[in-house]
Write a structure and sequence with these properties.
single chain; 93 residues; alpha+beta; 27% strand
């Protein structure tokens, strides 16, 4: 079995000093949604998925205004598990 470590979403809430231990109180911090993709003989198993394609395409409807305002996610399609697994040669099927 092979284990792939993926960042399936980056959050940039304010208060870098509290979140990352350095930076200013009014600077944005950086948190990642660490997910695992387990490559097995029968396929890939995701342990957590982070943000999905639908979350990136329709963030307000999927995640809510309050969550978006508090966490300031970057919401890039290339950070989704699907995009990263496709880049490694896997199919969504």
């Amino acid at each position: 079995m092979k284990i792939h470590h993926l960042n399936c979403g980056t959050l940039c809430p304010y208060c870098a000093r509290l979140i990352n231990g350095k930076g200013g109180w009014t600077e944005k911090g950086r948190l990642v949604c660490h997910c695992l993709a387990l490559e097995t003989k029968v396929g890939v198993v995701l342990v957590d998925t982070g943000f999905g394609v639908a979350d990136v395409e329709k963030p307000k409807a999927r995640l809510g205004s309050a969550f978006l305002a508090l966490t300031q996610p970057t919401l890039k399609r290339e950070e989704t598990a699907l995009a990263q697994l496709e880049a490694m040669g896997f199919s969504a099927k």
